[in-house]
Amino acid sequence: MNKPLLAALKGVRQSVPPIWLMRQAGRYLPEYRALRAEKGGFLALATDPVAAAEVTMQPIRRFGFDGAILFSDILMVPWALGQDLTFGPGEGPRLAPPLIDAQLEALARVPERLEPVYATVARVAAMLPAETSFLGFAGSPWTVATYMVAGQGSRDQSETRAFAYREPAGFGAIIDAIVATTIDYLARQIESGVEAVQLFDSWAGSLSPDQFERWVIAPNAAIVAGLRARCPDACIIGFPKGIGGKLPAYARETGVDAIGLDETVDPGWADAALPQGMAVQGNLDPLALLAGGDALEAGIDRVLAAFPDRPHVFNLGHGIGQHTPIAHVERLIARVRGG
């Protein structure tokens, strides 16, 4: 079966880079906005397998991407660990109680909250075109922990960084719980039908070198090892946003199959610095896609030229913005595919 995206992630260079986009199922699509309004909120949408499968399929039907990514959220794991999860209108997600002033041990774990995700995976796997690869995902432990400790996102994660310095044993217990749950979560996604998974570490760039080794490299390596022990053929993408020069160490030490590059990384440098033959994914600036025109054309050319011999999956350096014109996405796909 010909699946260009999956082949590239496993180290086989494709003559035309396969393409998918982070947040490709989302608010820039009118069909998504209509369905979300009908369901009444993000969590209701994400936990309805019929609706979540429909959202996952929307960009495949519209654009024919080489990969579909499961519609869900990185905070499903803390929700399963017992925190309450809400998405208020006009604000980011909130977790309660925040673990800055509550104990992890006091939470009552609710693993059945993840069952709708596996049902969504099974539905999508049965619907996808034969050539389309299916990606699942989870948040990496450091990023997930920042939300669990603070109860919400923040600009510099200072509250969680200070907590990790002040109470390393307590913070380590939170990380360990996330690791264990994430291994099972991703394994169940694979067993239900996804073909590769991505670890999103959106806040990995905020740590000092020693804390980076402790709270990013080590936990992600534990997830990779644990997942491969359970699913030996697991294909894993690591996306540690904002870590810059630490990328080669992350690539060597975590054991991931492929590295996602954010938009701040020079793709030519990455091609020279990362392990030979390792697949890379990225890294067009989402704002270049939003802008369109010459900025988009030049950005596409720069990314395509950076990887003359390396397996490459074309993607953005982060998620697609909600105000991105659909015509710009269509132009991007046509250019990457030689149009």
Structural account:
There is one protein chain. The protein is α/β, with parallel strands linked by helices. The protein has one domain (4-336): TIM Barrel, CATH 3.20.20.210. Helices cover 49% and strands 13% of the residues. It has helices at 4-9, 30-39, 42-46, 49-63, 76-80, 115-127, 141-150, 158-166, 168-192, 209-230, 247-254, 267-273, 286-291, 293-305, 326-336; strands at residues 67-69, 84-87, 93-96, 133-139, 196-201, 236-240, 258-260, 279-284, 312-316. The protein has a seven-stranded parallel sheet with strand order 1-4-5-6-7-8-9. A two-stranded antiparallel sheet has the order 2-3. Helix 10 (209-230) links the parallel strand 5 (196-201) and strand 6 (236-240). The chain is globular. The mean pLDDT is 96.
How many angstroms separate the termini? 25 Å
CATH topology: TIM Barrel
Low-confidence parts, pLDDT < 50 over ≥5 residues?
Answer: none
Shape verdict: globular
How would a textbook summarize the main sheet?
7 strands, parallel
The average pLDDT value, as a whole number, equals 96
Order of helices and strands: HHHHEHEEHEHHHEHEHEHEHHEH
Regarding CATH, which class? Answer: Alpha Beta
How many β-strands, per DSSP? 9
- Shape-level CATH architecture: Alpha-Beta Barrel
Percent helix, as a range, is 40-55%
**Strand percent estimate:** 5-15%
Spatial sequence of strands, sheet with the most strands: 1-4-5-6-7-8-9
Please give the count of helices.
Answer: 15
CA-based gyration radius: 19 Å
Total domain units: 1
Structural class designation: alpha/beta
